[in-house]
Amino acid sequence: MPNSSSIQGAPSAQASAKIPLGSVGVVHTQFLHFDEPLPLASGHTLSSYDLAIETYGTLNADASNAVLICHALNASHHVAGISAENPDDIGWWDNMVGPGKPVDTNVFFVIGVNNLGSCFGSTGPASIRPETGKPWGAAFPVLTVEDWVSAQARVADRLGIKRFAAVMGGSLGGMQALSWAITLPERVAHCVVVASTPRLSAQNIGFNEVARRAIITDPEFHGGDYYAHNTVPRHGLSVARMIGHITYLSDDDMAEKFGRTQREPAANGAYHYGYGVEFEVESYLRYQGEKFSKYFDANTYLLITRALDYFDPAKKTGGDFARAIAPAQADFLLVSFTTDWRFPPERSREIVQALLKNGQPATYAEIDAPHGHDAFLLDDARYHSLMRAYFLRIAATLDVPQALRASSEVRP
Amino acid sequence: MPNSSSIQGAPSAQASAKIPLGSVGVVHTQFLHFDEPLPLASGHTLSSYDLAIETYGTLNADASNAVLICHALNASHHVAGISAENPDDIGWWDNMVGPGKPVDTNVFFVIGVNNLGSCFGSTGPASIRPETGKPWGAAFPVLTVEDWVSAQARVADRLGIKRFAAVMGGSLGGMQALSWAITLPERVAHCVVVASTPRLSAQNIGFNEVARRAIITDPEFHGGDYYAHNTVPRHGLSVARMIGHITYLSDDDMAEKFGRTQREPAANGAYHYGYGVEFEVESYLRYQGEKFSKYFDANTYLLITRALDYFDPAKKTGGDFARAIAPAQADFLLVSFTTDWRFPPERSREIVQALLKNGQPATYAEIDAPHGHDAFLLDDARYHSLMRAYFLRIAATLDVPQALRASSEVRP
Question: What's the ipTM?
Answer without folding.
Answer: 0.92
